[in-house]
Amino acid sequence: xxxxxxxxxxxxxxxxxxxxxxxxxxxxxxxxxxxxxxxxxxxxxxxxxxxxxxxxxxxxxxxxxxxxxxxxxxxxxxxxxxxxxxxxxxxxxxxxxxxxxxxxxxxxxxxxxxxxxxxxxxxxxxxxxxxxxxxxxxxxxxxxxxxxxxxxxxxxxxxxxxxxxxxxxxxxxxxxxxxxxxxxxxxxxxxxxxxxxxxxxxxxxxxxxxxxxxxxxxxxxxxxxxxxxxxxxxxxxxxxxxxxxxxxxxxxxxxxxxxxxxxxxxxxxxxxxxxxxxxxxxxxxxxxxxxxxxxxxxxxxxxxxxxxxxxxxxxxxxxxxxxxxxxxxxxxxxxxxxxxxxxxxxxxxxxxxxxxxxxxxxxxxxxxxxxxxxxxxxxxxxxxxxxxxxxxxxxxxxxxxxxxxxxxxxxxxxxxxxxxxxxxxxxxxxxxxxxxxxxxxxxxxxxxxxxxxxxxxxxxxxxxxxxxxxxxxxxxxxxxxxxxxxxxxxxxxxxxxxxxxxxxxxxxxxxxxxxxxxxxxxxxxxxxxxxxxxxxxxxxxxxxxxxxxxxxxxxxxxxxxxxxxxxxxxxxxxxxxxxxxxxxxxxxxxxxxxxxxxxxxxxxxxxxxxxxxxxxxxxxxxxxxxxxxxxxxxxxxxxxxxxxxxxxxxxxxxxxxxxxxxxxxxxxxxxxxxxxxxxxxxxxxxxxxxxxxxxxxxxxxxxxxxxxxxxxxxxxxxxxxxxxxxxx
Length: 728
Description:
Helices cover 23% and strands 22% of the residues. By secondary structure, it is an alpha/beta fold.
């Protein structure tokens, strides 16, 4: 790639060389000069010059102030800001005076007060007084544009950051500017709630207090908060965040721009989901079952005694005999959710494998190491010439910010192809990889910087997408796992001992880690076969249904530790608030001592990605466990179950996210609906193996014939082949 052409410009008597075409705002920053802005935000695309705060004197050019954000560097250009030009200073004074004509001066009670660009720039660049003596215009406030976002229209300065985000970044088109001129207002389309996965980003983008969080509204002031940098632990992207705390409680989550991972964007689950910390059914003390549904609280020492008793009762050896390390099978089975930190997973694995001598485990879905040979930052998707998404699940359901990178690639001119049951290239379930080879291969080979993304269930997807990338010459390949830290958790298990994972037919004790695992139907079925169940959970439901001992769990916001995102990038979690119970690693270490295993509760576990170089690109990647070109035979319609982004134990406990929950619908292809005389919106029964659920039908023209789709929470107990019909 050739070096950019440099041009010489002068800004406030400072001469500098910058790449030709660089925006004047960025060029000024290279000289250490600030040009104030409101509407300008590089992540939103081309500047629009709406606020006029960046007016400067520019020559050559017309003899009047010009919006610097809309201009680019050209050789010989001379720019004077308000610091050196009386014309620019007068223009900026007038701009601020105009903005403040009707803007309420309610900074002491405004949630943006102390963090407000308008407040800061008024003090630094404004005239210092006002000539206006008439009453300011007032409007209805606050307007709930969604349960999570409130709008104070009288504070809005019409910078259009929010509408540009909705239109040009998230591409949901739900936030619009209505009316014209002085009557312009921000509104949602048809006054419907702003229901979109990334709606909360407009709160941070707003340079005034017009768009505010209903969760944070009137909760804290800037001088009484602490901001803790950390990483979101609710999906495999690993977005960088800042947790704002006050008096030991999390009050809000803000983005912390990592240009290679998230570019400063957050999904609403990561932004608003923190209130699960304060759920009514939060487990704060160990609970022991003393009746069918009755539990009693235990002191921690008693809880560890009870845990030891249950675990020893599950050993193949008698309680008087020590556990035998390295034993290949054992009646104590560990179920890991994939939301644990590396340190937690390692501590649990050592307890079970070394202390209890068991290799019995249920591991979370994980990517094949073969995909490491094609590892790249998520930001590389934006620069791709072709993006091919393979799989039956929407990208934003599994890894939401990845969907924004794909949209950014499309806006830069990339072709985006989806191959799956509802893709632009249709593929029957289980045949997507073969369809890529047959129909898309030549376009991949001919493209510049092609990127492959696997978005669908099945741990074999990592090996399949790596194999496709190798065969077709892709520049990068990504596997989107179902859990935030699944692969690192599985690797921690493997490092703790020798021998392959097993699942014995008869279980003594089932040790479940995490609320996500508790909600998994496979784990619940195992619980019915176990003699005793120990659950590590944040919430008492559904643990009370089948656990004999419930030990309090913690959230990612309450942990120090390490997680590894879908890129294979290790990141550090930092504790934002003190949990209501001891850190898991600490009490696991105490429990492990009773079985002769020493665990340092303060040691940082280093994932192997930090200790070794990336493997070379393989000559022939490992073959997938299941060949993705073979269709799974079913009777009736093939049911595709997917896990929506706004589902799971965390979302269920966040009031502001309930309106984002998936509707109880089943999606059908037009042909399948027609032959069953089903119309859009009809009530239908979805049946299989004597189980049926009633849902509303939705016709999806993209869906391949013979396949239906539904959220997993709406079709519990149904899998594989189903029939869909109208109720009699």
